[in-house]
Design a protein that fits this description.
- This protein has 206 residues and is an alpha/beta fold.
- It has one domain: Rossmann fold.
- A five-stranded parallel β-sheet has the order 3-2-1-4-5, with helices on both faces.
- Helix 1 packs parallel to helix 2, helix 3 packs parallel to helix 4 and helix 4 runs antiparallel to helix 6.
- The longest helix is centred in the C-terminal third of the chain and has 18 residues.
- The chain is flat and about 50 Å long.
- The C terminus is likely disordered.
């Protein structure tokens, strides 16, 4: 039996770099989101999902899988409109609704707009996938990370995760590593954000 990891393109890949947020259209080779291989079995039939960072990469793969499993999907993304429209196409090709909501998750007010849009369009939220993240350009020394970059990293990667569960539009299933989140404890999202801090490691600081 063939190893599925060997079916697609394999390294080495052409050296390439983009300015954030970047676009999948410029990548070579193009990523595989399961367009050909993923088969759904209605395991999420008529569910309503919110996926952040769903314009490309893992986010698009999740949106595609959810749609083929029968869910409608709100596609939250920053400003990569062309990529987001491609995600919309794969969701709609599966016969499900796709709602595009662009904007910056570093802003608390936008996190609220995302949840309110999902509640308005779908009537509820069954699934929330906090996939969006900001990393920035690789650096050699910790001194190269300025305060603005640090603030944005935490705003998108940690604070947004908390804000998105503060404004529930219905029953939300949040798959998190923090047990308090999985068990539905009211301040679980805050505990998860707190727990993320000690795990941060900076180059040169161990």
């Amino acid at each position: 039996m063939a190893d599925p990891k060997q079916k697609g393109p394999t390294p080495p890949f052409p050296k390439q770099e983009q300015q954030p947020p970047g676009t999948e259209q410029a990548m070579e080779p193009r990523p595989d989101h399961g367009e050909v291989t993923y088969k759904g079995f209605d395991r999420l039939k008529d569910k309503a999902a919110v996926v952040t960072g769903a314009d490309s990469g893992i986010g698009r793969a999740v949106a595609l899988a959810f749609a083929r499993e029968g869910a409608d999907v709100l596609i939250s993304y920053w400003n990569e409109h062309e990529d987001a429209r491609e995600t919309q196409k794969v969701v709609e090709a599966a016969g499900r609704r796709a709602v595009l909501v662009p904007g910056d998750l570093a802003e608390e007010s936008h996190c609220r707009r995302v949840i309110e849009a999902a509640a308005r369009e779908f009537g509820r939220i069954d699934l929330l996938v906090n996939n969006a993240a900001y990393q920035g350009k690789a650096v050699e020394k910790v001194e190269e990370i300025d305060a603005q970059r640090l603030r944005r990293t935490f705003a998108v990667n940690i604070e947004a995760t908390f804000h998105l569960v503060r404004y529930p539009g219905g029953g939300i299933l949040l798959e998190g590593e923090e047990p308090a989140v999985r068990e539905g404890i009211p301040d679980g999202a805050a505990r998860a954000a707190r727990g993320a801090g000690p795990g941060v490691r900076l180059p040169g600081l161990g």
